[in-house]
Design brief:
Strand order of the largest sheet: 4-1-7-6
Oligomer: single chain
CATH class: Alpha Beta
Order of helices and strands: EEEEHEEEEEH
Helix content: 10-25%
Distance between the termini: 37 Å
Number of helices: 2
CATH architecture: Alpha-Beta Complex
Number of strands: 9
CATH topology: Nucleoside Triphosphate Pyrophosphohydrolase
Strand content: 35-45%
CATH superfamily: Nucleoside Triphosphate Pyrophosphohydrolase
Amino acid sequence: MAAVIDKVAWVRVEDGRILSTRSRGKDAYYIPGGKREAGESDAETLAREIEEELSVAILPASVAHLGTYEAQAHGHADGVLVRMTCYTGDYHGTLAPSSEIAELRWLSYADRDRVSPVDRLIFDDLRASGLLT
């Protein structure tokens, strides 16, 4: 059985671009989010990770499940998969990189080759639905 890294991610699209982050020392961009801590719900994980990484508060009433995606984990041994449960949601505050995040950037579909394999699946779906330019 393959190892699976279970993550929750925040998909934020504005003006045809998706919010992505790059961690210190990494070469790829990732959709912001992270791993659950023991006993956390998806919504709790999302709120905690986004506040830690981007210094904003997710508005709980606005959170909606977008989809769940699975692919080879970027930078891990073959056969290690990442499963990302993705949510949309509004936020309060000013986006700013924090914690391990070195940079945040709004990416278009043309930037698809700069993101992890699982993020490419999300980019494809957002492009197909007309949300990502």
